[in-house]
Amino acid sequence: MSSFKALVIEKTDDGQTVALKDFKVADLMDGDVTIKVTHSTLNYKDGLALTGKSPVVRRFPMIPGVDCAGIVEASDNPDFQAGDRVILNGWGTGETHLGSYAEKARVRGDWLIPLPKGLTPSQAMAVGTAGFTAMLSVLALERHGCNPGDGPAIVTGAAGGVGSMAIAFLAKAGWHVVASTGRVSETDYLSELGATEIIERSELSGPEPPAGKTLGGQVDSVGSSTLANLLSSIQYGGAVAACGLAGGMDLPTSVAPFILRSVALLGIDSVRARKSLRLEAWDRIARDLDRDKLAAMTSSIQLADVQSAATDILEGKIRGRVVVDIE
């Protein structure tokens, strides 16, 4: 086919527009693998791109969508051939390279990994960048030497995509998980994922750290004063995996936690993670992920529904993960 359906962001004098339209195959960007996209997902970054609330998109027109699962249609890359099932997370897709909210994508083969055994394309996209980031955070804590015997692990932004996945992964690894959320109405949901305690996010976002908490490890997707308070509460030699900035890019703290208690701040980037780490993370996801918990945190939408869902995710109205069924 000479064209395919795609969600396209275009720049105008009045801002940006988003529309589902026909996109020419000839206008796809360079890459050595062409994919028939079967599934994508919705991340917070996708919400920012689609609404224009942050300068995520760096070129126009842009097909947004940072994740995809699909089937290789054509390949000049020796690692992949037609018929292979693959997944992609990050690498600037939906930002500088045409992304995944479309029936077709053309990308570099070294951005792809094979669909992990034991996962369907839909399940892989239910995990998506959010779950991949959560697993990178868990691996980073483990590499630092953090373990369940060190004390509780706090997960901030607990009802969101990264938070939901992090709770499930940490609980599977044996941690006592404390879920911090602005939606205490989701207590039952978070408990089902594996959280042992639920706290209101205001306990961590105020000017002072919470009293009486000694934490073993943390996965933080909020940043700002929340992250500062977490750093003040973590035990000697502990660490926090920082993977988001929903609360702001500032960090109102001092060097005290780092030089007095040997605390480590572990930065987590999922966009350009090396391939060996991607394969390790996805292998662990495929092995440890509770499929029932994944189903409980996942909803599904069509390509035409993505724009309205983008507004919802920024307003905190979406819990867990959203799969975009392209087919």
Count the beta strands: 15
* Count of runs of 4 or more consecutive helical residues: 10
Number of structurally distinct domains: 2
The radius of gyration computed from the alpha-carbon positions, rounded to a whole number of angstroms, is 20 Å
What is the CA-CA span between the terminal residues? 16 Å
| Name of the level-1 CATH class of the largest domain | Alpha Beta
Write the layout of secondary structure elements.
Layout: E1 3-12, E2 15-24, E3 33-41, H1 44-51, E4 67-75, E5 85-89, E6 104-107, E7 113-114, H2 121-144, E8 153-155, H3 161-172, E9 177-181, H4 187-193, E10 197-200, H5 202-205, E11 215-220, H6 224-233, E12 234-242, H7 256-260, E13 264-267, H8 275-288, H9 291-296, E14 298-302, H10 306-314, E15 321-325
Parallel strand pairs: 8-9, 8-11, 9-10, 11-12, 12-13, 14-15
Antiparallel strand pairs: 1-2, 3-4, 3-6, 3-15, 4-5, 5-7
Helix pairs in contact: 1-10, 2-3, 2-8
List keywords for this structure.
alpha/beta, Quinone Oxidoreductase, Chain A, domain 1, 2 domains, 30% helix
Describe the structure in your own words.
With 327 residues, this protein is an alpha/beta fold. It has 2 domains: 3-115 and 297-325, Medium-chain alcohol dehydrogenases, catalytic domain (Quinone Oxidoreductase, Chain A, domain 1), CATH 3.90.180.10; 130-267, NAD(P)-binding Rossmann-like Domain (Rossmann fold, 3-Layer(aba) Sandwich). Helix content is 30%, strand content 28%. The protein has 10 helices and 15 strands. It has helices at 44-51, 121-144, 161-172, 187-193, 202-205, 224-233, 256-260, 275-288, 291-296, 306-314; strands at 3-12, 15-24, 33-41, 67-75, 85-89, 104-107, 113-114, 153-155, 177-181, 197-200, 215-220, 234-242, 264-267, 298-302, 321-325. The strands form 3 sheets. Strands 3, 4, 5, 6, 7, 14 and 15 form a 7-stranded mixed β-sheet that branches. Helix 4 links the parallel strand 9 (177-181) and strand 10. Helix 1 (44-51) crosses helix 10 (306-314) and helix 2 (121-144) packs across helix 8 (275-288).
